[in-house]
């Protein structure tokens, strides 16, 4: 199939031969997949916007197998695309051409859990939701949560430095990941799988792999610090008339809820329209221009309820919010969360989706959505804004009935110039993958990009690991 739009030329990697397949089959009997019907779904990304033409899907179970595969591919100059749950949103998780797909799906064992420290060590292919369920039985939770939890894997989460719905409370994976085991491009196993809170013995190498999107090594195991399961969780769904009021509500909420605040998310009325239309999810409150999802997590239900009550009273009295509903019971909590978590899915039913994941100063977040609507006039089907307000992270999404290059040309570079003018980031949490790699200069100085290129060249001199991704085309 032809390369995806914007894809660079195929680099001169070797092509997979019968001899290569014989080698893979010897190491991975029954787990070297070449049936085109079975390889097909691993060639296509979650958004169905990218399609590779790989003919080989490898499914190792052990680190040693990954090491043997990578060592062999390096010696043969064969390109490799590491793949977890394939929920990535920037075209990083699927091949561009015929790269071998190395899936971690069968590397799904929990290796250890320390119920005193809360440190979990597991293989990279463990699905996030399975880890959450395992921990909940032990009175702990994962420090991250995202709408893709049912499919995404912890290795993929680390490789993309996924943010998600709990970052406001528990911080990023750069803080919660304590150790990693990584197979390097030459097949060496780098054992940085420490389970220590503190370790200042030299450079913190694991940090390099967090957010490296499969370009520097294959993550095979993760050690992560998990918080205790909160005894009391409440979710409120509120409506606001203006974005300014939403921000004031955030300020008030931070002050009044303090340490029990665990999420502050938003969606606009356009998102609500898509949830109603495509997923038949009814609005739990009256129609408003903006909606907020606030979650509190604490250790004392009475204390939390009192704090939440006081906050809601104050927010209503000062007219910051115009309507709202509270959930303490699990099924209602889930239902309210789905109004935020399922916006991504609702968008896929609306048409082809152009996704932007932007970090901006809080006051400017929604102005970008307004300016984009005005800039595009009637050219787009929907222009919606939602995201992690608490983290200064806007998800600006634009749909059209079908893929529309003219619309794309109207959106980009407008959106990136707008972002750079506020010193924002053109990728807050999804990464750069294939789609965003050439826009890196809007958020990073060329000196920093050059240094990234040097690191890539040192760790992967032949460039076999996830080629065409993350680094811009002018960095070789
Ligand atoms: P994949 O999609 O398989 O891969 C992603 C990247 O990581 C690719 O570049 C791949 O090569 C690399 N990779 C995967 N596994 C490894 C490994 N073991 N070693 C080295 N490289 C590897 N993201 C957020 O940040 N926050 C959100 O709130 C969020 N919500 C989402 C909601 C939905 C409905 C969807 C579909 C996606 C969402 N995402 C979100 C994006 C995506 O889920 C995350 O980026 C996730 O972390 C990817 O994990 P994965 O296992 O699916 O990785
Ligand atoms: C989210 O916060 O919902 C995710 O990052 C997915 C998306 O941006 O659609
Ligand atoms: Zn997000």
TrEMBL record:
Keywords of this entry: FAD, Flavoprotein, Metal-binding, Mitochondrion, Oxidoreductase, Transit peptide, Zinc
Subcellular location: Mitochondrion
Cofactor: FAD
Enzyme Commission (EC) number: 1.1.99.39
One family name in Pfam for this protein: FAD_binding_4
Database matches in InterPro entries: FAD-bd_oxidored_4_C, FAD-bd_PCMH, FAD-bd_PCMH-like_sf, FAD-bd_PCMH_sub1, FAD-bd_PCMH_sub2, FAD-linked_Oxase-like_C, FAD-oxidored/transferase_4, Oxid_FAD_bind_N
UniProt-listed GO biological process terms: malate metabolic process
Chain ranges of the FAD-binding PCMH-type domain: 50-229
GO molecular function: (R)-2-hydroxyglutarate dehydrogenase activity; FAD binding; metal ion binding
EC primary class: oxidoreductase
Catalytic activity: (R)-malate + A = oxaloacetate + AH2
Cellular component GO terms, alphabetical: mitochondrion
Gene3D superfamilies referenced in this protein's UniProt entry, alphabetically: 3.30.465.10, 3.30.70.2190, 3.30.70.2740, Uridine Diphospho-n-acetylenolpyruvylglucosamine Reductase, domain 2, Vanillyl-alcohol Oxidase, Chain A, domain 4
Signal sequence segment: none
Function: Catalyzes the oxidation of D-2-hydroxyglutarate (D-2-HG) to alpha-ketoglutarate. Also catalyzes the oxidation of other D-2-hydroxyacids, such as D-malate (D-MAL) and D-lactate (D-LAC). Exhibits high activities towards D-2-HG and D-MAL but a very weak activity towards D-LAC.
Family of the protein in this entry: Belongs to the FAD-binding oxidoreductase/transferase type 4 family.
Protein name listed in UniProt: D-2-hydroxyglutarate dehydrogenase, mitochondrial
Protein's organism: Parambassis ranga
Native organism taxonomy: Eukaryota, Metazoa, Chordata, Craniata, Vertebrata
Designated gene of the protein: d2hgdh
């Amino acid at each position: 199939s032809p390369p995806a739009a914007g894809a660079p030329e195929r680099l001169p990697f070797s092509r997979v031969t019968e001899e290569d397949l014989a080698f893979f089959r010897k190491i991975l009997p029954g787990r070297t997949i070449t049936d085109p019907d079975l390889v097909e779904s691993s060639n296509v990304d979650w958004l169905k916007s990218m399609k590779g033409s790989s003919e080989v899907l490898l499914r190792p179970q052990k680190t040693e197998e990954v090491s043997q595969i990578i060592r062999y591919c390096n010696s043969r100059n064969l390109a490799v695309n590491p793949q977890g749950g394939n929920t990535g949103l920037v075209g990083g998780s699927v091949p561009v051409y015929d790269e071998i797909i190395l899936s971690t799906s069968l590397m799904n064992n929990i290796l250890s859990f320390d119920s005193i420290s809360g440190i979990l060590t597991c293989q990279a292919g463990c699905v996030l939701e399975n880890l959450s369920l395992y921990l909940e039985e032990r009175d702990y939770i994962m420090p991250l949560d995202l709408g893709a939890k049912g499919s995404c894997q912890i290795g993929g989460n680390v490789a993309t430095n996924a943010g998600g719905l709990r970052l406001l409370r528990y911080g990023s994976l750069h803080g919660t990941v304590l150790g990693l085991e990584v197979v390097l491009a030459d097949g060496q196993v780098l054992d940085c799988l420490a389970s220590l809170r503190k370790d200042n013995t030299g450079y913190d190498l694991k940090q390099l792999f967090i957010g490296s999107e499969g370009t520097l090594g294959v993550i095979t195991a993760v050690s992560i610090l998990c918080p205790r399961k909160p005894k009391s969780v409440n979710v409120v769904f509120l409506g606001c008339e203006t974005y300014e009021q939403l921000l004031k509500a955030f300020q008030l909420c931070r002050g009044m809820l303090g340490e029990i605040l665990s999420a502050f998310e938003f969606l606009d009325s356009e998102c609500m329209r898509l949830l109603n239309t495509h997923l038949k999810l009814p609005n739990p409150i009256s129609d408003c221009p903006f909606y907020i999802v606030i979650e509190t997590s604490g250790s004392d239900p009475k204390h939390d309820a009192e704090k939440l009550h006081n906050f809601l009273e104050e927010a209503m009295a000062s007219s910051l919010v115009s309507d709202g509903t509270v959930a303490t019971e699990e099924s209602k909590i889930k239902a309210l969360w789905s109004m935020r978590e399922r916006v991504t899915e609702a968008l896929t039913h609306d048409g082809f989706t152009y996704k932007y994941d932007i970090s901006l100063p809080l006051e400017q977040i929604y102005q970008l959505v307004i300016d984009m609507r005005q800039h595009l006039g009637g050219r787009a089907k929907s222009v919606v804004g939602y995201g992690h307000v608490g983290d200064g992270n806007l998800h600006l999404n634009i749909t059209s009935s079908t893929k529309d290059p003219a619309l794309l040309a109207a959106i980009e570079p407008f959106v990136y110039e707008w972002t750079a003018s506020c010193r924002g980031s053109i990728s807050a949490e999804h990464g750069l993958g294939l789609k965003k790699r050439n826009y890196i200069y809007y958020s990073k100085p060329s000196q920093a990009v050059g240094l990234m290129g040097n690191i890539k060249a040192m760790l992967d001199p032949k460039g076999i690991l996830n080629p065409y991704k993350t680094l811009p085309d002018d960095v070789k």
